[in-house]
Each structure stands twice: as structure tokens, then as C-alpha cells.
Write a structure and sequence with these properties.
Layout lengths: L33 H4 L7 H4 L10 E4 L8 E3 L9 E4 L2 E4 L4 E2 L1 E6 L13 E6 L13 H4 L2 E2 L13 E2 L5 E2 L2 E2 L2 H10 L5 E6 L8 H13 L3 E6 L5 H7 L5 E5 L5 H6 L4 H12 L3 E8 L7 H14 L5 E5 L14 H12 L5 E4 L2
Parallel strand pairs: 7-12, 12-13, 13-14, 14-15, 15-16, 16-17
Antiparallel strand pairs: 1-2, 3-4, 5-11, 6-7, 8-9, 9-10
Helix pairs in contact: 4-5, 9-10
The structure holds iron/sulfur cluster.
Length: about 350
């Protein structure tokens, strides 16, 4: 019944829809991206300051899933567009709403040292809590729920991409996804991977599905930007077998560009490493996070957790709001790999 690409939306889906940062901004003569000079470039008002976080007097609740802590008035959605204040409760309106479904090689997550050669049923929804200008999956990460239609009423959210194009979805409850994964074991499937958009803006679906998978002996994988609070980690860590976590650079400057939180991401990684198999991915974007000293600091920090944590260094291609940049120079990628290998035993290049 199912083909390798189960949803027609998944054929070219990237596993990395963001990137990361670090603290002390490194002095460098390297040309900096215009994005770092103005993090407003190319981001619409709807994305940079959604109605969800507009100043209103009747704040009902605060979402504590990520460091943004969106204060949401009744009926308002968070910056991620995946959580909404419905009758005083912060509700994950993307629960079970599937935009992408595919039986992928585990190496595509990317995970190189977790059941190599296997495949995994990969599921994505919509929404993200970062604003990466180079997002490879912006068609599902930056969608807007049509306010005229009703997640609040229980109907499937009708999603619009930033371009105004409709984005297709279907509702797949945890039980059905788990059964689907079981049915694919004969085709090499080992479990379920939550990926494509940022899964943790709807962590409840991850938790509920992963619990069922664990009961059935399936493996669970999370591909995340690591921008979630301890409370979310407490909910999902017991049920996740492996993670690939984005580390979008190692300067605060870089994380500011995506409106992320480097310290929270480092804390997230530290906790995850103590609980499950973890691999990290750094997408190298020219002029943003491509310096050798930055990679050296990043690798040193990772090694302080464990020198055996796999690091994927991946090549950037022009995308979304950064179509004016060149792809990452391949010789630079090899240089960064050599740098990281001075501290880490497992460094892999991706997209080369
Ligand atoms: S998960 Fe979404 S609604 Fe909650 S704080 Fe983060 S961006 Fe805001």
C-alpha cells in the first residue's frame, strides 16, 4: 500500500529546517551575511511579530514550551503557529495534523550510528519556533493557520504557505501512525521519526505516539532544533531512543539571527546526551557560521560532553530568503571537518 515516499509532499524534504549559534561573538575579518547585519531582512511582519504576541491587555496564558514564552490572548496563536490559546488553555492545534509522511533511510535524518542501513517511518506536521532565513522546509515550518477556519472548532486546520498557496494535511492519530509503522517492519522499518518541521512545538503528539511505539517495540527518533524547555524534555525523554539536534553555529550572534537561544540549545543537548543516542548537525551557511575558530569552539564543547558524539557538517544551498548566497565551498567543509576531528571521533559531511 505504501511507497517509500508515502506523502507526495515528502520527496525532497530536508531534515534540517534551521541552524544554531554561540555566545561570545567572534571577531572576524570574514565577510558577514547581510542577515546578521539586519535580522529583519526579508521577514514579514506576520513572521517577526505575529498577532499571537501582540500587546493586549487580556492575557490569559503563557506558553512555556520554548524560550519565547509567548503570551497568548484568547484565540491567539504563538509565533510557531502550532499552539493557540483556546478557552484559556494553550492547545497544540497541530496535534496529529500530518503534512509529510515517508519511509526514509535512517541516514537521511541524519543518523549514522543508530541502526545503520535501516529505514524509519518519518512524520512531519507544521510550525516552528525559529525564524531561519535559510529554512529548507519553510513550506511547512512557516505556514499560517487560516483564521477563518477552525482548528478551534476541531476541523482540520487549513494551512497557507507564506506564498499564499494551500498546504495539504491529513489527521493521523497516534494509534494509526503506530499501526502503520508496525505494518512497515517487513520493509525494513524500525519505528517512527518525528521530523521535517519542529516536532516539539507539538510535543504532545510526539509523547503520545512515542509511548505507543515503545509498547510495541518500535524505535523512536526525534529531529529537533533543541529549542524547548526542561518541562518538555521531562515529557518526551523517557520515550525517545535517538535524536538528531541542530546546532546552528556557536555564537550568540548567529542564534540571534534565527531568534533562537544558544544557551537553551546547549542545555537541551546536554540533557539529551545523558538520556538517549544523540547526533548533532551544523548547516554551514557562508558568512554566518563558517569560521574555523567557531567550529573549533563548537567541537571542543561537544567533546566536553563526549568525544564520540557524531557531528554532521552539512552544506548550505541557496534557499528561502538566502537565495543570493553561494553554496558552501566544499574545500571549506573539509577544513571544518578536519578541525572538528581534532576533538571528535565521528564527524561526517552532508550534502556534498
Ligand atoms: S512553542 Fe510556540 S507558542 Fe509556545 S512559546 Fe514557543 S513559539 Fe510560542
Amino acid at each position: 500500500m505504501y511507497e517509500d515516499t508515502i506523502s507526495n509532499r515528502t520527496g525532497s524534504r530536508s531534515q534540517t529546517c534551521e541552524w544554531r549559534t554561540n555566545k561570545a561573538a567572534e571577531p572576524s575579518s570574514r565577510a558577514r551575511s547581510p542577515w546578521l547585519q539586519s535580522n529583519q531582512r526579508g521577514i514579514s511582519n506576520a513572521q517577526a511579530a505575529p498577532a499571537a504576541v501582540s500587546a493586549q491587555d487580556n492575557w490569559a496564558d503563557t506558553c512555556n514550551v520554548c524560550s519565547r514564552h509567548c503570551r497568548l490572548a484568547e484565540g491567539a496563536a504563538g509565533l510557531c503557529q502550532a499552539r493557540k490559546n483556546i478557552s484559556g488553555t494553550i492547545t497544540p492545534i497541530n496535534y496529529g495534523i500530518v503534512s509529510s509522511l515517508a519511509l526514509d533511510p535512517i541516514e537521511k535524518k541524519p543518523l549514522r550510528d543508530f541502526f545503520p542501513g535501516s529505514r524509519i517511518l518519518s512524520v512531519g506536521s507544521f510550525g516552528c519556533n525559529l525564524l531561519c532565513p535559510f529554512c529548507q522546509n519553510h513550506d511547512i515550518s512557516r505556514v499560517i493557520v487560516n483564521p477563518a477556519q477552525g482548528a478551534a472548532s476541531g476541523a482540520l486546520p487549513f494551512l497557507m504557505e507564506a506564498s499564499g498557496e494551500p498546504a495539504g494535511t491529513e489527521y493521523i492519530p497516534p494509534e494509526v501512525l503506530c499501526q502503520t509503522a508496525l505494518g512497515l517492519i517487513r520493509r525494513g522499518n524500525i519505528g517512527v521519526a518525528f521530523t521535517y518541521n519542529e516536532p516539539l512545538v507539538g510535543y504532545e503528539y510526539v509523547r503520545d505516539t512515542a509511548k505507543l511505539c515503545r509498547e510495541k517495540g518500535l524505535k523512536t527518533v526525534l529531529v529537533t532544533n533543541g529549542s524547548a524547555t526542561d518541562a518538555v524534555l521531562d515529557e518526551i525523554l523517557p520515550w525517545i531512543d535517538a535524536m538528531n539536534i541542530d546546532l546552528k553555529g556557536f555564537t550568540f550572534e548567529a542564534y540571534n539571527a534565527v531568534q533562537g537561544d544558544l544557551e537553551q540549545t546547549m542545555h537541551f543537548i546536554t540533557r539529551a546526551v545523558s538520556a538517549c543516542h544523540v547526533e548533532l548537525t551544523s548547516l554551514i551557511v557562508p558568512g554566518i557560521n563558517d569560521s574555523v575558530p567557531e567550529m573549533e569552539r563548537e567541537a571542543m564543547w561537544i567533546a566536553s560532553l563526549s568525544p564520540d558524539i557524531p557531528l554532521h557538517i552539512t552544506r548550505f544551498f541557496p534557499k528561502y530568503k538566502l537565495t543570493d548566497l553561494e553554496p558552501t565551498d566544499i574545500s571549506l567543509l573539509y577544513l571544518l571537518k578536519e578541525t572538528a576531528e581534532r576533538y571528535l571521533s565521528r564527524v561526517y559531511l552532508g550534502n556534498v
